[in-house]
Write a structure and sequence with these properties.
heterodimer, A: 90 residues, alpha+beta, Alpha-Beta Plaits, two-stranded antiparallel sheet, two-stranded antiparallel ribbon, 2 helices, 20% strand, extended, B: 387 residues, alpha/beta, Rossmann fold, seven-stranded mixed β-sheet, 16 strands
Chain lengths: 90, 387
């Protein structure tokens, strides 16, 4: 990284620059691979880029960074993704 | 080789701006700044200005466009006044915190209501805490020279802060004066192309203004303070270089006039600062040992120089602004600078608000009142309470 003579806020793109944001999650998406038709709607809509595309066309979820927003479950046409409460009630 | 141009403060500022060759100008017209942006538009039409001129829908957008442009590493310029400056307020903080060396002229105009287009300095004084460096000019020549110098200061690798060049509505913005214009070659030599520390570049992605945690944020604020402090010395160096290469000088943080042996020092800014010279001449003729220290930079504030002045003289301060609920801002800053360092007397006056004329005769009256020790209050409203 370059050294400057002033202090300012710059960030260079890097995986997990803000730490493992997956621990912000309240609901965890669970993918049923038997139902999945590999349409990739979840991959298109995921705002965090946490849907991993595998070589064989299937997808997985990167739980290190998935914040559990539920968009993937909402856009899935075949209801292959289910949101389960992960955080414990106080 | 310099030429003499006789023109108004705004047209002179337009000339200076294009000679500094900013790649981007984004501005929205407002009285009394309008002729400044019209001037630049004319240079676009004539082909003398080859940069990008962005027409925007508001001052907030003008500053936002300058921020975006400056972040790509190019030189940017804009101008505004009064309510336009206030509409920029959020973006002013943003520009300074993002450390973007934008240069802007602000033509000091009254804030409404009541609606008024004449001059006072409440618009820029109320932007005091945004992190911008603030100059106050007292002649069209100083406007020209300060604009060129400001790019050099703002873009310095240890500064990277935006600069606001203030001058009074109509008294300077619409008054013609002869101004020496150096050649483009001389200016190019003095002010080379901007070398940005970093830039938004799609081939080399970087996020600016991203989220930071409290401990890091405090460091960012402290560094802005450090850069303002460093700029005190740099303003002296940059004016000295201009004096050497171009041959003109308007002072560093302060401009001193007849201060040798003075027992009273008058401190004022902007056009009142220029008018004060005539008052000092007359008062000296009458035997008063008085000099003038015209404050050129309100940020960084010339604390050390003012402490020095206070060792030998009582101070008389004229404010063309009022921080309602306290007092004139210059008066406050001067007294704060002296705390624990000097117990000299400081006499305060508020004058010229709402564009009220402040002539050399008015200034003489204020000075005499202070010298005779007859100011009953700490700060006197000259126009309303008289002397």
């Amino acid at each position: 990284m370059k050294k400057y003579k002033i202090v300012t806020t710059l960030s260079y793109p890097k995986k997990g620059a803000m730490g493992k944001t997956g621990n912000w999650r309240v609901f965890k998406p669970k993918l049923d691979k038997d139902k999945c038709v590999k349409c990739l709607r979840c991959w298109i809509f995921c705002p965090e880029g946490t849907i991993i595309r595998n070589k064989d066309g299937t997808v997985d979820i990167d739980y290190d960074y998935c914040k559990g927003c539920g968009i993937c479950a909402n856009v899935c046409k075949v209801k292959a993704i289910k949101m389960d409460r992960e955080a414990k009630r106080e | 080789m310099s030429e003499v141009m006789i023109d108004t403060g705004n047209y002179i500022a337009a000339k200076a701006a294009i000679m500094a060759k900013p790649e981007v100008v984004a501005s929205y017209p407002i009285t009394p700044q309008t002729t400044l942006v019209e001037g630049i538009a004319n240079y676009v039409k004539s082909g003398e200005y080859k940069g990008e001129y962005i027409c925007v829908e508001s001052e907030h957008s003008a500053m936002a466009a300058c921020i975006g442009a400056s972040a790509t590493g190019v030189r940017t310029f804009t101008g505004t006044s009064s309510h336009g400056l206030l509409l920029m307020h959020e973006m002013l903080h943003w520009a300074a915190l993002a450390r973007l060396p934008i240069v802007m002229c602000n033509i000091n105009r009254v804030l409404g209501p009541g609606w008024n287009i004449w001059t006072d300095e409440n618009d820029s004084i109320s932007q005091r805490d945004t992190g911008w460096i603030q100059f106050y000019c007292s002649s069209n020549q100083e406007i020209f020279d300060t604009i060129i110098q400001s790019f050099k200061l703002a873009e310095h690798e240890k500064v990277n802060l935006p600069v606001m060049i203030n001058y009074n509505a109509f008294i300077l913005s619409h008054t013609s004066m002869p101004v020496y214009i150096p050649s483009q070659k001389e200016i190019d030599k003095y002010l080379p192309k901007r070398k940005a520390l970093w830039e938004l570049d799609i081939k080399n992605p970087v996020t600016m203004g991203n989220i930071i945690l409290p401990a890091e944020y405090e460091k960012v604020r402290k560094d802005m303070q450090k850069s303002q402090e460093i700029s005190k010395k740099l303003i002296c160096d940059i004016s000295a270089e201009w004096k050497k290469k171009i041959g003109r000088f308007h002072g560093d943080l302060l401009e001193f006039y007849k201060c040798t042996g003075a027992e009273y020092i008058l401190l004022s800014m902007g056009a009142i600062g220029a008018e004060s010279k005539a008052a000092i001449d007359n008062l000296r003729k009458e035997g008063f040992k008085i000099g003038l220290a015209r404050v050129r930079t309100f940020r960084p504030f010339p604390k050390e120089e003012i402490i020095k002045l206070s060792k030998k003289a009582e101070l008389i301060v004229i404010d063309r602004n009022i921080s309602v609920g306290m007092e004139g801002a210059l008066f406050t800053e001067i007294k704060a600078s002296l705390y624990g360092k000097s117990d000299t007397k400081v006499h305060g006056f508020i004058a010229g608000l709402g564009g009220n004329d402040v002539t050399f005769e008015d200034i003489e009256k204020m000075c005499k009142k202070a010298i005779k020790g007859k100011t009953q209050k700490e700060q006197v409203w000259y126009g309303l309470e008289g002397v």
